[in-house]
Amino acid sequence: MILVSVFYYSIRLFSVMLAGHLGELELAGATLANSWTSVTGIAFLAGLSGALETLCGQAFGAKLYRTLGIHLQASCIISSIFSIFISILWYFTEPVLIFLHQEPDISRYAALYTKFLIPGIFAYGFFKNILSFLQTQTILLPPMIFSAIPFAIHVGVAYCLVHKTALGFEGAPLAASLSMWVCVLLLALYLVFSKRCESSWEGFTMESFGYIAVNLKLALPSAAMKCLEYCAFEILVFLAGLMKDAEITTPLISMWYVNASS
After folding, report:
1. By the 8 A CB rule, do 45 and 53 touch?
2. DSSP assigned state of 102
């Protein structure tokens, strides 16, 4: 599962790198957007999916295989609802960042970058849920493969969108969103057609709505812990935005954080 995380973060990092090649302001905006979206969306959805590790683990241990699929559907419903609220927050990124005393020019680029990541936040929620669902069944190799393929595709698509189309800066986050949906699509196809998931996935059912409350009891505390964990480091990036020459200090602090957490 370590490699799965590496491939996912490589997608985000590669997009930031491509944006950074366009100029210092673009790099600062992309890194600030990366930190902003990590705290306000990525961490929260990753925490929500943590409920599945407990619920699916219990169901798998009790050999209630059909219940695994129901828990997965309930978790996907929850992540979709919260993704809508996250998207609304992300849409108003620029005024929020300016309110937090970030440089206006950097905030404008960060907001633009964030808006093109909005489609990908829904995919990320599904991705984390399916990942937890498969992990509790000790299905580890397929997620690694289906994370490596989107990253390989992402490298080419991101480069073309940034340097070969009129999108330019906007192409970097758009490519990241597209790559996340490719990853989810591959995992979903495996989920539906793999014989290893026959007993745990029987298709969509209305029963999943009855499992939402049980899921939320574990998901919300898990999401809160994950957000606090991310905030401990990402707040340094926001503080860097308050310093002189924020175009330079913001990406420097962000790169330090990436190296320290790897």
Report:
1. no
2. -
Query: What pLDDT digit, counting tens, does each position of 60-94 carry?
Result: 999 999 999 999 999 999 999 999 999 999 999 99
SS3 116: coil
Contact 88, 223 (CB under 8 A): no
- Rounded Cα gap, residues 231 and 253, in angstroms: 14
| CA angle in degrees (0–180, nearest 5) for 185-187-191 | 115
pTM exceeds 0.85 for this model? yes
What's the token pair of residue 30?
Answer: 């992309």
Domain ranges of the chain: 2-256
pLDDT digits (tens, 9 = 90+) for 30-55: 988 988 898 899 999 999 999 999 99
Q: What's the pLDDT band for 246 if we cut at 50, 70, 90? A: low
Give the CA distances from residue 97 to residues 52, 104, 210, 211, in Å, rounded to whole numbers and listed in that order: 33, 8, 38, 37
| Position 260 confidence tier, pLDDT thresholds 50, 70, 90 | very low
8 A C-beta contact, residue 159 and residue 16 = no
Tokens of 257: 């954080």
Q: Which residue has the tokens 């290893």?
A: 196
Burial 227-249 (b: 16+ CB within 10 A, else e): beebbebbebbbebbeeeebbeb
User: By CB neighbour count within 10 A (0-12 exposed, 13-18 middle, 19+ buried), where does 226 fall?
Assistant: buried
What is the C-alpha to C-alpha distance for residues 144 and 157, in angstroms, rounded to an integer? 20
Cα separation values, 242 from 14, 15, 103, 227, 260, Å = 25, 24, 7, 22, 22
Q: Per the structure block, which two tokens stand in for 22?
A: 């366009």
Q: Which tokens sit at 106?
A: 């950097």
